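--- STAGE predict ---
source: upstream dedup step, 1 unique chain passed
mode: sequence only
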Amino acid sequence: MNIIRFEHPGFIYALLVIPLLIVIFLLVLRWKKKVMERFGHYQVIRRLMPDISGSKVITRFILFLIAYVFLIFGIANPQVGSKLVEAERRGIDLVIALDVSNSMLAEDIQPNRLVRSRQAIMRLLDMLGNDRIGIVVFAGKAYVQLPITTDFAAAKMFLSTVGTDAVPVQGTAIGEAIRQATKSFDDDTHTRAIIIITDGENHEDDAVDAAMAASENGIMVFTIGMGLPEGAPIPVLDQYNRPAGYKKGPDGSTIVTRLNETMLQQIASAGKGAYVRASNSDTGLKKIFGEIDKLEKTKFDSRVFSDYEDRFQYFIGSALVLLVLEMLIYNRRNRFISRINLFGEEKS
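--- STAGE serialize ---
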């Protein structure tokens, strides 16, 4: 069975212009009719101009629209996949554990810790090649949001919407996040690594023991600290996600959340990975990626690709033929053809 795809699917959106073109065409026809009515009754004026053919104007426009559709499809380049080839993939399995607790809304890292974390992961996805990736989100609990996959587009789509409401229980359970990430790996024969992106304020469990257990299973644990040691207050958002003050403690004082570098360094050390602190100018992603890139790449199951053949020439050729035909059709009636009386009717 042949597979059809577009090499440049973004151009297909140009077809959305067609309704606008139709509206403009109808408005022009209406405007012409109103201009003619200024000189008298419309039907009378039309009889005074027998050589003008309204149907030809419509025919030319229809030909233009069809040619436009063919041209867009040609530019998008339809491709037919008929030849199957095998390609070997080598990479690592990587799970990113993202902290989505309220403290990640602190703005010591601009625009805030969570947004910068999402941006860092997006850049990491652009750097990865044949690797597989999974995503775990955590606060007071940890959940697998994206199982191990090669679908980076799905990962980016999820990241664009993830917020502090992704986990209903507040807190920072880094240890549980590591254990959930460890369970996410579906094959222990591949090189595996976990990246934890958090402010390091672990209040729930022993994350160092969890990292050590992961390391014993051949999984390296890296940490990226989002935030600054001096910290920042935690914004409180209203129902419209707008700032409505800062979180207060029982005594009414503003709570300040600070980066716990010592904890994150201990986790990375126990996981035989590396730690880096993010800042307003750098998320430390290059260092972490450099460490990950040094890891041995393992072979995944071979994927089957289709060798695609271009078909744009048929659409471009058809569009050119229709455009030439459209230019050859005159708006005026052909006087020779109008004299032909196929039914032998008498003309008054």
